[in-house]
Write a structure and sequence with these properties.
The chain is of the alpha/beta class. It is built from 22 helices and 22 strands. 47% of the residues lie in helices and 20% in strands. Strand 18, helix 18 and strand 19 form a beta-alpha-beta unit. It is an enzyme of class 2 (transferase).
Length: 696
């Protein structure tokens, strides 16, 4: 069972005919439940337990069946439990028109009838309602268990504190008391002890105050608290402390004082003795107490001032970080927008002037600026760990060897490049393009740290992290592949290392760095399930250590990574449904499809798209955004579409790695993701690949 289902609430499924069980299981997973399919009536009956959330079964599955075992289990449920049943019926509906359904209602109790055929959304709604009701029952069970535990702890606490409990009915004047309460007043458990006995036992001097306190509590509802002397049957004098609270029944009637009593004779005796001994010290103690109170108040004031100062500091740091982030974004995007807008203005002027010979240069400049803007957003997504990754089994040594010529050209002749690669290196599961970008960024940073030349070493190693070693790196224990990039440059101070992964933080001169390189590498490593660490010393160089998760299987051979192919023309009649709430994106996708010869159908939201799918026309591919408006996102639309058209190929287009696309696992077969922004030729090639059924 997948890990996502182990933690999901369990729903019993008893639909032995046809594909009912498979369909029900898929819909239950969509509703957030883990289906448990029961192959026969005996298995279904055995699965009915206090831990099951609800049950889905078909009416025909119970026809002519002996339901006494199920009825017995339903009847044997504890008071808090009322297991919901969802019965899928055929024509005939619920118990008001269907005698068989009425019989099932009597046997099962908490039952909802859902007539087939039904819409998947309707089924999901009924399942979620049953799940919500069952969760309330589980909460009631927890409260009952907590109440029992509380009662046990209260009883233990009363015994440990030698507290006696009592209850006085105001209207009837009757007093009920525990054995411990009787002992406070010198009575044995067998001796009667009513309200009259209580009054008679109180010292005559204390009796009026006690009765006045009782009346005041009854009239005002204030808590009852008093200490008084009482005379035991043997004539000895004792002190009792009595506490109570006025309670009423649900209708606000039948007032009762409910409380506890304790023998405080020893305490009062000690207090009296201490008072007599310290009469001369009373004034000094009072003065010292006042001094301590003032000191305490001063400490509290100082602590509050410190708290306010720390809060202001934290807020200032937050605003500084936000200001640095937004300022860097505004600066970079303003530069890029200037290039884009300026190029477009010049294109418009040249067209108005009838001068077309320079249009290519302005178009190229605009596209280059837009490409840099896309790269900037990808770096931001990498830092925030929301980019779309395409992990593959990679042989890291082969990837480094393939980049060696590029690295040599990038760092220049003044820097010596060395390799220290482990021969039997494990494979790692990462996005190869992002890993190449990360490695190149690290090499560029190393080059910039060695302006007078030096030595750059790229190394790899296998690393098994367990216990404290994994915890220190904030990684799960396991096997990792280590990538080291070490230079002999200027190194970093402790302060610079602390801020190295902050977005837009850079030690380079203004205009020579965006400050996003290391933050992008950090985000990529964390999103891939790995980590990055810095080891550096001023004047001695820096070593960047990138930990990547090990892949147990074989790595892809060099040259097997897929490449984008030229998109051929469509076959007559091939149709693509485009669903996107952004009109401009929808228009561009439709234009590409029409240029390729496809018939394009478009919708602005999931509901309209689903209606087109249900209409029955030809649709070879669904292209949908993930973040659609309304009650249905792109993934929900794809799932609903595959219920109507099993096997329909789906291409998700998204601006970031929305968890709604893949949930806790991988994409299903026939589904792919294309990250915005994308080139139109890349979109065309991907559409053609999917329609032709080729795997990337």
């Amino acid at each position: 069972m997948p890990s996502s289902e182990r933690s999901a609430p369990e729903a019993l499924v008893f639909t032995p005919n046809g594909r009912d069980a498979t369909i029900a299981a898929a819909l239950l997973r969509e509703a957030g439940a883990a289906p448990r399919i029961c192959p026969d009536l005996a298995a279904f009956e055995a699965a009915i337990s206090d831990e099951a959330c609800f049950a889905v079964l078909t009416e025909e599955a119970l026809q002519h069946a002996d339901l006494r075992g199920i009825a017995a289990r339903v009847a044997a449920q504890p008071p808090w439990s009322d297991l919901p049943f969802i019965v899928l019926t055929r024509s005939g509906g619920g118990p008001e028109r269907n005698p068989a359904a009425a019989h099932l209602s009597e046997v099962l109790g908490n039952v909802t009838f859902l007539e087939r055929p039904f819409h998947p959304i309707t089924f999901a709604s009924v399942a979620r309602t049953a799940l919500k009701g069952r969760h309330r029952q589980f909460e009631a069970r927890a409260r009952i268990e907590q109440l029992h535990e509380s009662e046990g702890r209260l009883s233990t606490a009363l015994q440990a504190g030698r507290l006696g409990t009592w209850e006085f009915d105001v209207e009837s004047g009757t007093l009920g008391s525990s054995d411990a309460c009787k002992a406070v007043f010198g009575r044995t458990p067998e001796q009667p002890f009513g309200y009259g006995d209580l009054i008679a036992s109180i010292h005559p001097e204390d009796r009026p105050a006690m009765q006045a306190a009782v009346r005041a509590s009854i009239e005002s509802g204030a808590d009852y608290l008093i200490e008084y002397r009482n005379i035991w049957p043997d004539g000895t004098l004792h002190w009792a402390e009595v506490r109570a609270r006025l309670v009423r029944d649900r209708d606000g009637r039948r007032p009762r004082l409910v409380g506890v009593s304790s023998d405080i004779t020893a305490r009062r005796t000690a207090e009296e003795n201490l008072r007599r001994l310290n009469e001369t010290l009373e004034e000094r103690v009072a003065a010292r107490t006042a001094e301590l109170r003032q000191a305490h108040e001063a400490v509290l004031v100082e602590a509050e001032q410190r708290r306010l100062a720390e809060e202001l500091l934290r807020q200032s740091q937050k605003m500084e970080a936000v200001g640095q982030l937004t300022g860097g974004l505004a600066h970079d995007f303003n530069n890029l927008l200037t290039g884009i807008i300026g190029s477009l203005d010049l294109i418009q002027r040249r067209i108005e002037q009838g001068r077309s010979e320079e249009l290519g240069r302005y178009i190229a400049a605009s596209k280059a600026a837009a490409g840099r803007a896309a790269a900037l957003t990808h770096r931001l997504l990498a830092f925030s760990r929301r980019q779309t990754l395409d992990p593959k089994p990679i042989a890291l040594n082969q990837l480094i060897a393939g980049m060696e010529e590029l690295v040599v050209r990038t760092v220049g002749p003044a820097i010596e490049l060395r390799s220290a690669l482990q021969e039997d290196l494990w494979a790692t599961l990462v996005d190869p393009n992002q890993l190449e970008n990360a490695l190149l960024n690290l090499c560029i940073n190393a080059r910039d740290a060695m302006p007078q030349g030096g030595r750059l070493t790229i190394g790899t190693a296998n690393a098994s992290l367990r216990g404290h070693a994994a915890g220190a790196l904030e990684l799960a224990p396991g096997d990792y592949v280590l990538l080291d990039v070490e230079d002999t440059g200027t190194g970093m101070s402790e302060e610079v290392m602390q801020r190295a992964f902050d977005p837009f933080f850079t030690t380079k001169p203004l205009g020579q760095g965006t400050g996003l390189g290391l933050s992008m590498i950090y985000g990529f490593a964390r999103q891939s399930g790995g980590q990055v660490r810095i080891e550096s010393e001023l004047g001695r160089g820096t070593r960047m250590r990138l930990y990547l998760p090990r892949h147990a299987g074989p790595a892809l051979e060099a040259g097997t990574l897929p490449a984008t192919a030229d998109a051929p023309r469509a076959t007559a009649g091939e149709t693509v449904l485009v669903v996107d709430d952004e009109e401009t994106v929808r228009m561009l996708v439709v234009e590409v499809l029409q240029d390729l010869g496809y018939a394009a159908v478009e919708a602005a939201d999931g509901q309209d798209g689903l209606k087109l799918i249900q209409a029955g026309g030809r649709i070879d591919l669904l292209v949908t955004d993930v973040g659609l408006p309304g009650d249905m996102n792109g993934r929900q639309l794809a799932d609903a579409a595959r219920v109507v058209r099993p096997g329909l190929r789906v291409l998700f287009i998204t601006g970031y790695a929305e968890t709604a696309v893949v949930g806790e696992g991988d994409l299903e077969e026939g589904m792919q993701v294309l990250t915005k922004p994308f080139a139109m030729d890349a979109l065309a090639s991907r559409i053609q690949e999917m329609i032709r059924g080729r795997q990337r």
